């Protein structure tokens, strides 16, 4: 699913009005009505007080449309205008007039803290103060209003985005934005729903279709895309009845040092579970028995070094190589790694200590084959690209790094983001159960295993990140967040593949709720027994 920039959203609104021969007021009517329908379906006329806070732009206009429909359907509505300036938008004014036709209780004007209404914890707050048009710091008294929302404990529904957040830059230090319980976003989710610094403002969200021109949505290239089953399914390569292991590549995992051999075991399992035809692990001597015992399906090649890799020489041509897991950063290993990079021709997935070595010796970046995949967690990323002040700067710097070195960078974490030049792909699968040692090692193996089978590296990466997270989501059913282990993710990869072909995803995207989903699956499982 495409994540449009603010400018693209405005252009979509404009083109839709033009191509469908409707006015911007009609579009606002659609937007407000979509929100109303969403609420009406859930509330069924319940007389809970609904406080609708409207700004003076089009987001506020949406709020006024909603309030009008709520009033005409008999809901208990109190409407407020947060008087934040003089620039009332044309469609706001149209709807300001329209609401006066349906109620004698005109919207209350709020101009300062003393005007804040009392709100009971069981009431509902609708936040239609600012949408994507926020373009300067919010006045302190309005920030206090946002704090007031939160302090009431009432359910807060934000329209389009939680007010006070920008779509493309961080908010001013120390300033407040609305903490929404739920956000109803028009046409496409916003990038800020997925970034660590802003995601908590909109943990639950849903996209509402307001009929933006299909052709425009289809043909517009966006910098950011959301990756879920729908996007990765077309990547899937079917297996031919007469295929043999030679068709699916021979992958190599290079890594391990004394005390860190498990990382290679996990990556090798991940690689095999992703479908590599053959797997070899290149490890220091001390890992031989470990590897052969833990992964009997894999072959083992040992280095001359006993406790860590010192030479890094082998005599076959792997289809793809995953390098770095448990590798260590001994000077001899670093020299061996440099030597390896000079000779290597295979596509690379680079993780953990291989990333740390690249950070220590940046000149080695020149030796990476074009299209290499780097899979840092945030700390490893910082070592590579330096510090950043906020999530947007982090993404910009990573894009720059990716373009400069012609590599793709997988920023791991909740909502892993793969940066490929200027493109950013936000993954939707995965859960906090994955915050466990070794989960990243499995991912290295999975991506390497997919490249082995002929997936172009960027597809292998998006597909691999999705499957890895999905496997962990499905494994929650049996392990919950706390007991989920990295090896469960490797073991569950098959279920993630099978799941690709299960029930189609819902049209309207929402952040997955793995725990809830796991509960439903448990219920279904019990029923089958
Ligand atoms: N065709 C349309 O115009 C549609 C617009 N939609 C709504 O329109 C929103 C965008 O509307 P707008 O562009 O009018 O902007 P917003 O309503 O998001 O808010 C910004 C308004 O407040 C002013 N403003 C910005 N920062 C401020 C600040 N810090 N303090 C005080 N005032 C500030 C701006 O000048 C503008 O008038 C979307 O988020 C969505 O909710 C929807 O109705 C869909 C259709
Ligand atoms: N809270 C979370 N939600 C979703 N995925 C997570 C979360 N925490 C970690 N992960 C995923 O788990 C993996 C952890 O990788 P990494 O930090 O390299 O761990 P390790 O080095 O122990 O293998 C990554 O794929 C990351 O995206
Ligand atoms: K809002």
Automatic annotation (TrEMBL):
Keywords: ATP-binding, Isomerase, Lyase, Metal-binding, Multifunctional enzyme, NAD, NADP, Nucleotide-binding, Potassium. Homotetramer. It comes from the Bacteria. K(+) binds at residues 59, 127, 163. CDD domains: YXKO-related (cd01171). Gene3D superfamilies: 3.40.1190.20, YjeF N-terminal domain (3.40.50.10260). (6S)-NADPHX binds at residues 58-62, 131-137, 160, 263, 326, 377, 441. The keyword DNA repair does not apply. Its cofactor is K(+); Mg(2+). It comes from Winogradskyella maritima. Residues 9-218 form the YjeF N-terminal domain. AMP binds at residues 412-416, 440. The keyword Metal-binding applies. Its EC number is 4.2.1.136, 5.1.99.6. InterPro entries: Carbohydrate_kinase_pred_CS, CARKD, Nnr, Ribokinase-like, YjeF_N_dom, YjeF_N_dom_sf. Binds 1 potassium ion per subunit. It catalyses: (6S)-NADHX + ADP = AMP + phosphate + NADH + H(+); (6R)-NADHX = (6S)-NADHX; (6S)-NADPHX + ADP = AMP + phosphate + NADPH + H(+); (6R)-NADPHX = (6S)-NADPHX. Residues 502-529 are annotated as: Disordered. It holds the Pfam family YjeF_N. This is Bifunctional NAD(P)H-hydrate repair enzyme. Catalyzes the dehydration of the S-form of NAD(P)HX at the expense of ADP, which is converted to AMP. Together with NAD(P)HX epimerase, which catalyzes the epimerization of the S- and R-forms, the enzyme allows the repair of both epimers of NAD(P)HX, a damaged form of NAD(P)H that is a result of enzymatic or heat-dependent hydration. Residues 228-500 form the YjeF C-terminal domain. Belongs to the NnrE/AIBP family.
């Amino acid at each position: 699913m495409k994540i449009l920039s603010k400018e693209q959203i405005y252009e979509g609104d404009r083109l839709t009005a033009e191509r469908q021969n409707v006015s911007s007021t009609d579009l606002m009517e659609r937007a407000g009505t979509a929100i109303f329908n969403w609420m009406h379906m859930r509330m069924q006329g319940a007389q809970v007080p609904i406080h609708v806070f409207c700004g003076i732009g089009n987001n506020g206009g949406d709020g006024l449309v909603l309030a009008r429909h709520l009033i005409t359907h008999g809901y208990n509505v109190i409407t407020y205008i947060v008087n934040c300036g003089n620039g009332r938008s044309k469609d706001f004014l149209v709807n300001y007039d329209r609401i006066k036709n349906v109620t004698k209780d005109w919207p209350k004007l709020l101009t300062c803290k003393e005007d804040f209404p009392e709100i009971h914890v069981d009431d509902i707050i609708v936040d239609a103060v600012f949408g994507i048009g926020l373009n300067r710091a919010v006045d302190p008294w309005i920030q206090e209003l946002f704090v007031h929302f939160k302090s009431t404990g009432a359910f807060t529904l934000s329209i389009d985005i939680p007010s006070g957040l920008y779509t493309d830059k961080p908010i001013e230090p120390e300033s407040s934005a609305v903490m929404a319980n739920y956000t109803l976003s028009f046409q496409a989710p916003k990038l800020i729903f997925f970034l660590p610094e802003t995601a908590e403002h909109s943990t639950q969200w849903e996209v509402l279709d307001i009929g933006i021109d299909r052709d425009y949505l289809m043909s517009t290239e966006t910098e950011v895309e959301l990756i879920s089953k729908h996007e990765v399914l077309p990547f899937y390569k079917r297996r031919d009845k007469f295929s043999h292991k030679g068709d699916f590549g021979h992958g190599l995992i290079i890594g391990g040092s004394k005390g860190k051999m498990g990382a290679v075991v996990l990556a090798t399992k991940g690689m095999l579970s992703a479908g590599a035809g053959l797997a070899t692990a290149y490890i220091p001597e001390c890992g031989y028995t470990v590897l052969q015992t833990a992964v009997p399906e894999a072959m083992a090649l040992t280095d001359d070094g006993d406790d860590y890799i010192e030479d890094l020489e082998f005599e076959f041509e792997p289809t793809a190589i995953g390098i770095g897991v448990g590798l260590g950063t001994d000077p001899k290993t670093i020299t061996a790694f440099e030597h390896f990079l000079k000779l290597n021709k295979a596509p690379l997935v680079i993780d953990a200590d291989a990333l740390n070595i690249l950070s220590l010796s940046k000149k080695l970046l020149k030796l990476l084959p074009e299209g290499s995949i780097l899979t840092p967690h945030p700390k490893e990323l910082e070592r590579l690209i330096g510090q950043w002040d906020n999530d947007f700067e982090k993404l910009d710097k990573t894009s720059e790094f990716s373009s400069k070195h012609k590599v793709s960078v997988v920023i791991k974490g909740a909502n892993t983001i793969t940066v490929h030049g200027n493109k950013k792909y936000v993954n939707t699968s995965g859960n906090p159960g994955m915050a466990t040692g070794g989960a990243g090692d499995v991912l290295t193996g999975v991506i390497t295993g997919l490249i082995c089978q002929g997936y172009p590296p960027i597809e292998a990466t998006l597909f691999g990140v999705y499957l890895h997270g999905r496997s962990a989501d499905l494994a929650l059913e049996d392990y919950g967040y706390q007991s989920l282990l990295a090896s469960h993710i490797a073991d569950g990869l098959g279920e993630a593949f099978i799941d690709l072909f299960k029930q189609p995803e819902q049209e309207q995207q929402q952040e997955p709720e793995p725990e809830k989903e796991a509960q439903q699956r448990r219920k279904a499982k019990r029923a089958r027994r």
